[in-house]
Design a protein that fits this description.
The complex is a heterodimer. By secondary structure, chain A is of the alpha/beta class. Chain A has 13 helices and 23 strands. In chain A, strands 5, 6, 8, 10, 11, 13, 15, 16, 18, 20 and 22 form an eleven-stranded mixed beta sheet that branches. Helices cover 39% and strands 25% of the residues of chain B. By secondary structure, chain B is an alpha/beta fold. Chain B contains nine helices and ten strands. Chain B has a six-stranded mixed beta sheet with strand order 6-7-8-3-9-10, sandwiched between helices. The radius of gyration of chain B is 18 Å and the shape is globular. Classes of the chains: A alpha/beta, B alpha/beta. The interface between A and B is medium-sized, with 29 and 35 residues.
C-alpha cells in the first residue's frame, strides 16, 4: 500500500529517472568487429577452444547475413564497427562479499532503489548483477548450491560447467537464427546461467539486474536456463540504463530449456533509456528470446517493456513435447518517439499443446507500438489450442498502434481464438478521476495499471510494484 | 460556502447558462429543478471544473475564494464533490484502489501522510454498511458491469469516504428503484451536518421526499427564475413547468 503511494509521488517528476552515469574504472577494448576482436574476447575470458570455434563459426555466418527490415520500426542502422565489444569494470580480485564491490557501483544500485542488502534481507532474492557485461556480485549462491542449483554468470559456467553449456548453448536459438542472434553468438561477453536439477523447486525468485553503463558499449548478453525434469524456477530480469545521447545497441539472446514436467516462469521489466522527448538517443533493443518445452512442460514469459528507443523482441515457445504449455503476457508502452515491434511465436509441435497470449499495448506521444505474433500449429499437433488477446490503448491522436497476427495451421483439430480491442483513455475517465481529487498524471497511472492488470498479476509481487511505477513514470505528461 | 454571481457559460459557441446567481450556505440543502435542457448538468460540471465548458462571465466563489482558475482536482481537494449522473467505468481498477488513491491524493494536497491501511479499511467498512454494500463490491472494477443502483450507491459511498464540504448530486435518483433510492437518500442524510451543504439536481419530487430541501430553485433557460421552500417542489410535481414559463413570459 505504501509502495503505491510512493508511486503517486514519483509521477510528479518528469525526466528519465534513472539517467545518470556511474564513473567506474573500465577495461574497454578498441571499437570494431573482426575475428581478432572475437579471439581477444575469448582470450580475456579464458575460454576453451570449442567455444572460440563456435564464436568464429557464428561470425562467419553472420558476415553473410543482412540486417532484417521487416519490422514496423524505422531507425538508422547502428554502425557495428564503431562499437566496443568488451567492457569490464577492472577486477581487483574475485569478490567474496559486498564490501569488496566498487562503492560507486553500490551507489548506482542505491539510486535505482536496488539495495543489495535490502534485497537479501527483505525479499530473499538472489541477485546476480550484470554491469557492463561482467558479473560483479553473486549472492545466495551457497544456499542454492545445497540444492544442486547452479546460478552464476555464463562466463563462470563456461569455466565450471563446460559440459552443460556445450550441450545446450545454441540449441534453442541457433547461431544463424537471425542477424542479431548471430552477432550475439560471435561476441557475447556475459550473461546468466542457471541449472535446476531434476525434481527441484527453486525456493526463491532468481533475479538478474542488467544494466548498460559504459558510454558506447553495446551489450551482448547470453542467458541459458535449463530446468531439468520435474523442476520449477521463476526468473526475473530487470533493466535500467543511464541517459546517453548516442544510440546504444543491445542484442541479447535468451534460451530456456524446460525438460519433461518442468516449469519456467521468466519475467522481465525493461526500462532502458528511451531517448529524449525529441526522439534523440536511446537504446536499440534487438533481442531473441526463446524456450523449448518438452513433455508436459510449461514456459511463461511475462514482460513489461517501457524503455528503449527501438524494441524488436518476440519471446517465443516451441511446444515440442505432448501436453506442453506456453504463455506470453506482455505490456509494451511507447511514448514520445519510441518504437516497439514486439510479440511472440507459439510453435505447436506436440499433441494437446496449449498456448495463451495476452498482449497490452499502450501508445502515447508520437510513438508507434506494434504487436506481431505467430501461432503455428504443426501437422502432428493434434488438439492444439491457442487463445490470443491483443489490446491497444491509445493516448492522444499522434501515436500509432498496429497488430500483425499470423496464424499457420496444418492440423484440422486445432482450436484458435483471437480477440483484439483498441481503446482510448477518455476525457470522461480523466475528469471522473480529477473530480475525486486525482491529478491527471496519477489518473493515467491508475487507468493504465488497471488496463494492464491481467499481465501485472503474473509478475512476482516485488516486481509488480516496480512495474506499476514504471508504467506511471513512462507515461507522465502524455495527456493534457 | 458557494457563491455564484452572474455566471455565463458556453459550449461550442452556444450559451447554456445565461447569468445565473446562487448562494449556498453551510448546513443547507438546495434543490435545483427544471425542464430538460435548462442547464442543470452544465451547472454542476462547471462548478466541478470540467474544461469543455467555456465560462464567459461571472464568478464562482467557494469558501470565500475564487475557484475559477483551479483545476478539477484542486476543487475536489477544496471540498467540492460531484456525484455523477453517468459514472464512467475504469476497467481493472477496483473500488478499493480507486477510493484509496482518491483519498490519499486529497490528503497529500493537504500535506497529510497517506491514511494507514488499518484506518482506511475500518472507514471503508463503516461507509459500506451505511450504504448497505457487500464486501465483494469493493474488489470489483469501478462501475464496470454495475447496475444503475450500484453505480449511484458507489457514488455516495465515495462521497462518504471523501467527506466533502459541498456535495452536488446530479440526478442521483435517475435509474434507482425504490429500495436503492431509500438507501442512497438515507446515506446522504446521515452524512449531512451543520458544516457541509448539499446541492441536489433532479427532475422529480421523489428524492426530495427523502432528502428534505431547505430551498428549491427552478432553473429555466440558463437562469434561476424562481426560488422557494420545499413546497415549490411539490407544486412543480403537481403542475409541471408550464406555469413558470407563462409567469416569466408574462
Amino acid at each position: 500500500m505504501t509502495e503505491e503511494d510512493k508511486l503517486l509521488e514519483e509521477v510528479t517528476t518528469a525526466d528519465y529517472k534513472y539517467g545518470f552515469v556511474t564513473d567506474i574504472d573500465s577495461d574497454t577494448i578498441k571499437n570494431g568487429l573482426n575475428e581478432d576482436v572475437i579471439r581477444l574476447i575469448s582470450m580475456k575470458k579464458n575460454e576453451p577452444q570449442w567455444l572460440l570455434d563456435w564464436r568464429l563459426e557464428a561470425f562467419g555466418k553472420f558476415q553473410k547475413m543482412t540486417e532484417p527490415d521487416w519490422g514496423n520500426v524505422h531507425y538508422k542502422k547502428p554502425d557495428l564497427q564503431s562499437i566496443s565489444y568488451y567492457s569490464a569494470p577492472k577486477p581487483k580480485k574475485t569478490l567474496d562479499s559486498l564490501d569488496e564491490v566498487d562503492p560507486e557501483l553500490l551507489k548506482t544500485f542505491e539510486k535505482l532503489g536496488i539495495s543489495l542488502d535490502e534485497q537479501k534481507m527483505l525479499t530473499g532474492v538472489a541477485v546476480d548483477i550484470v554491469v557492463d557485461s561482467v558479473s560483479v556480485a553473486t549472492s545466495f549462491k551457497e544456499k542454492l548450491g545445497e540444492l544442486g542449483i547452479i546460478f552464476c554468470s555464463i562466463s563462470e559456467a563456461i569455466q565450471e560447467h563446460p559440459d552443460l553449456v556445450r550441450k545446450y548453448l545454441g540449441t534453442v536459438v541457433p547461431q544463424t537464427d537471425n542477424f542479431y542472434a548471430a552477432l550475439n553468438s560471435a561476441v557475447f561477453t556475459d550473461g546468466s546461467f542457471c541449472y535446476i536439477p531434476k525434481g527441484t523447486r527453486c525456493p526463491m525468485e532468481l533475479s538478474t539486474y542488467f544494466r548498460i553503463n559504459q558510454a558506447g558499449t553495446g551489450q551482448f548478453e547470453r542467458t541459458l536456463l535449463i530446468a531439468d525434469e520435474g523442476s520449477y524456477v521463476s526468473y526475473l530480469e530487470g533493466c535500467t540504463a543511464p541517459s546517453r545521447d548516442e544510440n546504444q545497441l543491445h542484442a541479447a539472446v535468451v534460451e530456456l530449456i524446460a525438460m519433461d514436467d518442468a516449469e519456467i516462469k521468466y519475467s522481465t521489466v525493461q526500462n532502458w533509456y528511451p531517448g529524449n522527448k525529441e526522439g534523440k538517443g536511446g537504446v536499440f533493443n534487438f533481442v531473441t528470446k526463446r524456450g523449448i518445452c518438452h513433455k508436459s512442460a510449461k514456459i511463461s514469459w511475462t514482460q513489461v517493456e517501457t524503455g528503449s528507443a527501438v524494441t524488436w523482441k518476440y519471446p517465443s515457445c516451441i511446444l515440442k513435447g505432448d501436453n506442453s504449455v506456453g504463455e506470453f503476457f506482455s505490456v509494451a508502452v511507447t511514448n514520445n518517439y519510441q518504437q516497439a515491434d514486439t510479440g511472440t511465436k507459439m510453435i505447436h509441435v506436440g499433441k494437446n499443446t496449449k498456448s495463451t497470449i495476452i498482449s497490452k499495448g499502450i501508445s502515447a506521444g508520437n510513438s508507434n507500438g506494434s504487436y506481431r505474433g505467430l501461432v503455428k500449429i504443426m501437422k502432428g499437433a493434434e488438439n492444439a489450442r491457442n487463445f490470443s488477446q491483443c489490446d491497444s490503448l491509445l493516448m492522444g491522436d499522434t501515436c500509432g498502434s498496429h497488430t500483425f497476427p499470423y496464424i499457420e495451421v496444418k492440423n484440422k483439430s486445432a482450436r484458435i481464438e483471437h480477440e483484439a480491442t483498441t481503446s482510448k483513455i477518455g476525457e470522461d475517465q480523466l475528469f471522473y478521476c480529477n473530480q475525486r481529487g486525482i491529478g491527471t498524471d496519477a489518473a493515467i497511472g491508475l487507468i493504465v495499471n488497471g488496463y494492464c492488470k491481467d499481465v501485472l498479476n503474473q509478475l512476482p509481487m516485488e516486481f509488480a510494484v516496480e512495474a506499476q511505477k514504471l508504467l506511471a513514470i513512462s507515461l507522465e505528461g502524455s495527456v493534457g | 460556502m458557494l457563491k455564484i454571481q452572474d455566471l455565463r457559460v458556453e459550449i461550442e459557441g452556444k450559451e447554456i447558462i445565461k447569468g445565473l446567481n446562487l448562494e449556498i450556505n453551510k448546513g443547507e440543502v438546495h434543490a435545483i429543478m427544471g425542464p430538460n435542457g435548462a442547464g442543470k448538468s452544465t451547472l454542476s460540471a462547471v462548478i466541478a471544473g470540467r474544461e469543455e465548458y467555456e465560462v464567459t462571465g461571472g464568478t464562482i466563489e467557494f469558501d470565500g475564494k475564487d475557484i475559477m482558475d483551479l483545476a478539477p482536482e484542486e476543487r475536489a481537494h477544496a471540498g467540492v464533490f460531484l456525484s455523477f449522473q453517468y459514472p464512467v467505468e475504469i476497467p481493472g481498477v477496483s473500488v478499493t484502489n480507486f477510493i484509496k488513491t482518491a483519498l490519499n491524493e486529497s490528503r497529500k494536497a493537504k500535506g497529510l501522510d497517506p491514511m494507514p491501511a488499518k484506518d482506511l479499511l475500518k472507514m471503508m467498512r463503516e461507509k459500506q454498511q451505511l450504504l448497505e454494500m457487500d464486501k465483494q463490491f469493493m474488489s470489483r472494477s469501478i462501475n464496470e458491469g454495475f447496475s444503475g443502483g450500484e453505480k449511484k450507491r458507489n457514488e455516495i459511498f465515495q462521497m462518504a469516504m471523501l467527506d466533502p464540504k459541498l456535495a452536488i448530486l446530479d440526478e442521483t435518483d435517475s435509474g434507482l428503484d425504490i429500495d436503492a433510492l431509500r438507501i442512497v437518500a438515507n446515506g446522504v442524510n446521515k452524512l449531512k451536518n451543520q458544516d457541509n451543504a448539499v446541492m441536489i439536481i433532479t427532475h422529480y419530487q421523489r428524492l426530495l421526499d427523502h432528502i428534505i430541501p431547505d430551498f428549491v430553485h427552478v432553473l429555466y433557460d440558463g437562469k434561476i427564475v424562481k426560488s422557494g421552500d420545499k413546497s415549490l417542489a411539490l407544486e412543480l410535481e403537481k403542475r409541471g413547468y408550464d406555469w413558470i414559463k407563462q409567469e416569466i413570459e408574462a
